[in-house]
Amino acid sequence: MYESSRALFERAQQSIPGGVNSPVRAFKSVGGDPVFIRGAKGAWLYDVDGNQYIDYINSWGPMILGHAWEPVVKAIQEKVKDSTSFGAPTALEIDMAELIKSMAPNIDLVRMVNSGTEACMSALRLARGYTGRNKFIKFEGCYHGHADSFLVKAGSGLATFNIQKVPGVTAGVANDTLTCAYNDLGAVQELVTHHKDQVAAIIIEPVAGNMGCIPPAEGFLEGLRRICTEEGIVLIFDEVMTGFRLAPGGAQERLSVDADLVTYGKVIGAGMPVGAFGGKKEIMQHIAPLGKVYQAGTLSGNPIAMIAGYTLLKALQERNEIYSELEEKTLYLKQGLDEALSLSGKPYRINQLGSMISIHFSDQPVTDFASAAASDNAFFNRLFHAMLRRGIYLPPSAFETWFISNALEKAELDQTIAALKEAMAELLSA
Ligand code: HOZ
């Protein structure tokens, strides 16, 4: 019927670099061959070998209501009859922009793009064009896509594969990227003082998800907001993961901190290739064709991606209770994981905010990249396989957050907790 994952991976490596189209899928750090997916429905993933898994990746975030959610599937099927792309404006793009504005704070204007990478890259260019400054600050272990400027001390795949310097990123570009430890407000203040009037932007994942889940310390985001306001720096929230997930208005709403620019990714396409950046009119009006900061894309605002995203976001807006349901499910899982891990005797930390959660094997609080990297991540890699064997699909790296979908029911959460108990006992007795 289907080729096995093993056979497909063999074949894939003959024509795709490393056999995958994005490095984090490769299982390279956890070891073994990646599982090839045949399909997914609700909380479940199905592989080509006939196995099924409870999914905690959810396409790295967007499947907030689970896979193949019927209204999204139907909307795509209907829309595709009218063609897949025009390269000309549509009314649907306005509906989408209006919907985003009605959900998220501080969005006067929003430009659609095709990925989170594009969104962050464009927001940074805009901040530079607006301020006339070159440098920007990012945080160690945060990942803002793979544009050159962001590939400095980055999280996600770069942390997973321990890539500290990316060949092809020129020193000139890297020199304009200043970095600080996450949650270290004093270090940000020092950098800004040292590079007075040179810093265009501070970009941050308001809840970090690319070094596991790391929530902001109390007052940290507020402190960044203050520094940016005082120094004329553009505060960019990368809400690729948190947008429309932590609240209808994302982390800005959930944590009550205003950004100047916000970037979005896959969530606003319900898993289709979409991104967007938006923010205050004073800044956004510098984007072409209003201003001279050029940014463009044939597929931007693609009708199939727009209808998928619009359908998901509208449901999230109309059914506000989804957020409390997500929170309840995540807290239930957290409590169960906590019980399972405390029985094992292995030191651990569980970080969680809203429907983002992860485990680090550490006896210290995990608050930044250094503490995430100092955890027993080799043990996490073994746990990943022990869980996979039990039908639980976690991100294949300790440097990734887990995403909870509202398709998860108590039975699946209980199955996950039971699997963790078993997996820990197996690993610690070996
Ligand atoms: N930011 C996502 C994972 N942390 C991206 C997934 C990918 O790189 O494929």
Radius of gyration: 21 Å
**Helix/strand class:** alpha/beta
Regions with little confidence, pLDDT below 50 for 5+ residues: none
CATH class of the largest domain reads: Alpha Beta
Query: What assembly state would you assign to the polypeptide chains in this entry?
Result: single chain
Outline the biggest β-sheet.
7 strands, mixed
Are any ligands bound, and if so which? (4S)-4,5-diaminopentanoic acid
CATH fold name of the largest domain: Aspartate Aminotransferase, domain 2
What's the helix count?
A: 15
Q: Give the beta-strand count.
A: 14
Named CATH architecture of the largest domain: 3-Layer(aba) Sandwich
Shape: globular
Order of strands, widest sheet? 4-10-9-8-7-5-6
> Mean pLDDT, nearest integer?
97
The tally of structural domains comes to 2
How far apart the termini lie comes to 36 Å
The CATH superfamily label of the largest domain reads Type I PLP-dependent aspartate aminotransferase-like (Major domain)
